[in-house]
Amino acid sequence: MIKRFLMAGGGTGGHIIPLLAVARELRQRGHQVIFAGTERGLESRLVPAEGFELRLIHIGGLNRVSLAERITTLVRLPIATMASIPLVRPCTAVFSLGGFVAGPPSIAALLARVPLVVMEPNAVPGFTNRKIGRYVERALISFPETAAYFRPGRTETTGLPVREEFFAIRPKQRQGPLNLLITGGSQGSRTLNQAARHLWPLLQQSRFQVRLMHQTGARDFENIRDDFGRTGLTGEVLPFIADMPGAFAAADLIVCRSGAGTVSELAAAGKPSILSPFPFAADDHQTRNAEALEKGGAARLVRDAEMNGERLFSLLRELQADPETLARMGEAARQFAHPGAARRAAEILEGLG
Fold first, then answer.
1. 153-203 confidence digits (pLDDT tens)
2. What is the distance between the alpha carbons of residues 33 and 89, in angstroms, rounded to a whole number?
3. Domains, the chain
């Protein structure tokens, strides 16, 4: 029996890429999948490229926006919700990854009594999932503590869909210099870029044996590349790393932010990390994610305001002194991994209706 599903979420790759992974699983099973999103989000490019239909809704955000935009969003929310009801009514279920784009279709599903399944990849749910948590049919989570935000018996720890290449990465034996990967994501991180700049002279003065790979983002790339080239340190500076699984595989230690997608990739690859959460993430969810990994022994947490070259160098020296520590952190990271997340989400959705 062919079923119809609506994917709700978008704006960023962190929202849309996992939804696409689940959508592909459902399509392979012979079902129909459509997406709801906005024309300015990343979904407007990625969804049609994958051959899925995108239905546009008109809604804005509530977090980190001006008062005028917040008021506009609140005015548009009931209109966008009512406009979404005809979209969700023919569906077997609505699958939401949260975010402002998911608000109207998710509320419409509840009003139309269409089963709503949410995937919450952060330790603390975002605004939308916190508000509707008690009403959802199922909640697919990444951290056991997240279950407290949903009805008992309605959660399952599936994790977030991650590319299989990350799961294929095997534990790495340390040989020679420490291979250090620094990445602030595809857009880069000004905090991590500055910390790396201030780290270089400390590495030079101490003759610390390290090989650096640094993804800067396009904005700061040229200046950082040119300055790094004058240090004489071993490594490379790139605006964007196309083969991130390959970069993970080569790394002994990774310095990065702690968004849901990043921590899921760290777990899948079993990589130790130094996490510096983006302090302006909605509901400070990156800090909660980093705290969960640090509590589990998989990472060290350095808050954005404290991340600098000196702090980073101190941690590198500490971890370099005991190679077994990095191995234990990598093993601990892998305990957070959840292979087959997209397949399991598709199975749950297929079982509804």
1. 999 999 999 988 999 999 988 778 999 999 998 789 999 999 999 999 999
2. 14
3. 4-160+339-350 (3.40.50.2000), 166-334 (3.40.50.2000)
